[in-house]
Automatic annotation (TrEMBL):
Signal peptide: none annotated. GO terms for molecular function: hydrolase activity. The lineage of its organism: Bacteria, Bacillati, Actinomycetota, Actinomycetes, Mycobacteriales. It comes from Rhodococcoides yunnanense. Residues 255-374 form the Acetyl-CoA hydrolase/transferase C-terminal domain. Keywords: Hydrolase. SUPFAM superfamilies: NagB/RpiA/CoA transferase-like (SSF100950). This is Acetyl-CoA hydrolase/transferase C-terminal domain-containing protein. InterPro entries: AcetylCoA_hyd_C, AcetylCoA_hyd_C_sf, ActCoA_hydro, NagB/RpiA_transferase-like.
Amino acid sequence: MLGSLLHGGCTVALGDGFGTPQGAFRELSDAARAVGGVRLLLGWMPKEPIGLDFTAFADVRTVMPGWGLRKVVAAGLAHFVPIRLSQVSALIHNVMRPDVLVATVVPTRDGYTFANEISWQQAAVDAGAVVAAITSSAAPTCTAGVLLPADQVVVIGSTDQPPGDMPRAPTDPITERLAAGVLPQIREGTRLQVGPGALGSHLLLNLTVPVRIDSGLLPDEVVDLDERGLLLGEPAATYLAGGPRLRNWADGRPILHPIEYTHDISRLSADPFVAVNTAVEIDVHGQINVEGTATAVFGGIGGHGDYAAAAASTVGGVSIIAVATTHNSTSTLVSSLSRPVSTPAHDVGIVVTEHGSVDLRGLDRIERTAALTDLWGEAGIRQQKIER
């Protein structure tokens, strides 16, 4: 069935997130090899896509290499397109228009909707892609948007397997101190974005004021927030990133939106908004690298820059970067970033480490460098000369 939708030179987009249609990976690979010349577009793969043969495609591009595509990108089997998530829709419409989108969907009384995530998949549909749909009986129905156009949906299979679970990130004393430094910046009624991982989870578990959640990924701890009476309204996200508890809680709620909504900087900056993110490195000017090291790409730009820019532009909000001063005994404050800038310095407001915080807003470049150097203290500045 899937093979009949492909033709030589076509572009196939593969739905991403924890609900990516794993059951179609082998069939897609076999069909692409048989047809020849098929291009593949990928998004965020949180797990290694077992069964997907990258050599079956003429070209493979991803807009988000971490976490499951790190090895593939490192091996040269896929090209990482450095782009913010808010720009992916334009990329799909203007340059990388897919002919087919292979995605997991859930049936409703009136038609089909996306399942555990919407992400950039709606942009592919709006650009005219045929949806090669795997219907799921185990995924939640939690999209806030319209139904998929019936004339663009071709059901190619079904699954009773639930979406994947977000692994629990262990909390250590440094993470606890980072969270303690961030919590005073979150006021009652604030719209809050948190990144994935231990820091975001710990923040949500330790909040004592009611907030609204407006984030790319929605973690399990949102359920705890709701049970404590601290969740205002319905959260907005584009990916579910939790386990069965989150999916059960989300089922029937209009939570998931396409990235055109979740990562819209104008919408996000309309009223007080606090963005809490981290970094691989920060340089002495306050510029952020979230892509990787000098030798390996293991992250992606994703929504980091979108949320930081929005929070930096909002009245009553702030863009926060929380990062430990060292990683593997090496300073995270550097003289020069290992990779190109992911988020510019002017979109960074407050920097929090396990030793305290500095507010960079209103400081000139010399003052910013002095403040960051003082905050890092004994960890110092890692000197490096990067050949690019």
